[in-house]
Amino acid sequence: MLMLLDVALVLAAYLLGSISSAIIVCRVMGLPDPRTHGSNNPGATNVLRIGGKAAAAVTLVGDMLKGLVPMLIAHGLGVEVATLGATGLAVVLGHLYPVLFGFRGGKGVATALGAQLGLLWQLGLAVAAIWLFMAKVMRISSLSALVSMGLAPLILWWLWPEPILVGIQVAITLLLFWRHRTNIRRLVGGEEKQIQGPYKGSQGD
Buried-most residue among 49, 112, 144, 155 (CB within 10 A)? Predict the structure, then answer.
């Protein structure tokens, strides 16, 4: 029975992660499909470009909540650490490769941050603080994401040195880096655009 509960929790986390906040928000607010406009990425940064701050804020909160809620439920059920980590990985995979939207998802930063907050709030706050600092200084969303998520496994190891959880966080970080591979190429080439308001031609995150 416990194993069935674990499987159900992980599957539910993936399905919840598959709900694209960006696509839903854009449809409700009469905005263009984020998969075909701006950077073609269904995430909060692209929604900011094509729809403005309000739409981006709702998208960001939605993406974070779908990462946070499954982790809080997992904690509440008292599952083993392996299931806790698998739940976080599943919700991020759902966002990256959503079965509900043809496996064309976003880049996963907000959902991963929500999962980190749900796993260990100190981890989530530390990652968020690094993102905000980098965004304030560099004004590049993808660079902020890469630095903050790149440091996440080290922060988790310091706060909660559980090998299974740290290993899963490493896997999540690698997935996010893979999804940001075009951003990385532009960063290396000095072509990545800064964070900006309604869409003006940026090809960023």
Answer: 112
pLDDT-derived band at 165 (thresholds 50, 70, 90) equals very high
Spatial distance between the Cα atoms of 86 and 168, rounded to a whole number of angstroms: 7
The predicted structure's pLDDT at residue 2: 59
- Evaluate whether 153 touches 169 at the Cβ level (below 8 Å): yes
- Predicted TM-score (pTM) of the model is 0.92
Give the total residue count for the chain. Answer: 205
Instruction: Give Cα separations from 174 to 17, 22, 122, 125, 168 (angstroms).
Output: 18, 23, 21, 20, 10
Three-state SS string over 92-121 comes to HHHHHCCHHHCCCCCCCHHHHHHHHHHHCH
Domain residue limits, the chain:
2-188
Three-state DSSP state, 149: helix
